[in-house]
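Why do we bother with holo predictions? Because pocket geometry can differ from the apo form. Keep that in mind while you read this record for adenosine-5-diphosphoribose.
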Amino acid sequence: MGTAADLAASVRERGPAVVLTGAGMSTESGIPDFRSATGIWAEVDPFEVASIDAFLRDPLRVWRWYGKRIGGLLAAAPNAGHEALAALERAGHVRAVVTQNIDLLHTRAGSGDVVEVHGSIRRFPCLACGAEESLEAVLAQLETREAPLCPSCGAILKPGVVMFGELLPPAAMERAERLARETRLLLVVGSSLQVWPVAGLPGETLRAGGALAIVNLEETPYDAEAAVLVRGPSGSMLAEVVRLLGLGSLRNDVTASS
Ligand code: APR
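The structure, written out:
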């Protein structure tokens, strides 16, 4: 099993890395992931609350779940793993972060180039007329109603995240595929790599001759093909990589930049 030192060595030799993150990146911020034993899908059926069919069938049911989820995401703060990736980007060791997460924590931690392949809670589109509302406007509406309405046509707005049964934002996915093909190192952090098409990105890197590094608490389908496989928590592992690359400890870095 690999160590943070092996990770730092592969970043030094093969960087700048492209990083692919999943929900495991945010569990140390208090946001549950989806498929581990304590994950969200152990509590609720994704096809009842996170599929486009469910939204079209019963938008209020979806919003009763999503309204609470948005509150939880906004109450969370970036953890040491998010801060480490931002520090690595500033130092030139990370080219971009491709994330499946919709929680905005990479951006809030200071990462500049974040590709949100599953959308985010920044925007809330209206499927009826194409208008769009901001997070702030939606939060204001949620103070007095269960589901936000389109200011133009009155239809119930949809969360700006990719739901099961929906296509991923084409521009984001095309850029993610290009980054995966071009990079010499794809670093996967906190993802079970079970949801396509994002789960196909490590294969793109490997087929193009790049190497794979994985930091994950549980097995993934790509473990056997990883040049470095670290079975450990993303926060401390990535913070250790920052220290080993001589970027100081995160605390100093955050103090310096804050
Ligand atoms: N450090 C490292 N790994 C962790 C940590 C941690 N602190 N916490 C959890 N993990 C691991 C879990 O063991 C699990 O293998 O992160 C992985 C998270 O996997 P999933 O819950 O499947 O999340 P993700 O891969 O992001 O799911 C992809 O599925 O439901 C959809 O749209 C949703 O974007 C999501 C997509």
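Residues 252-258 have pLDDT under 50 and may be disordered.
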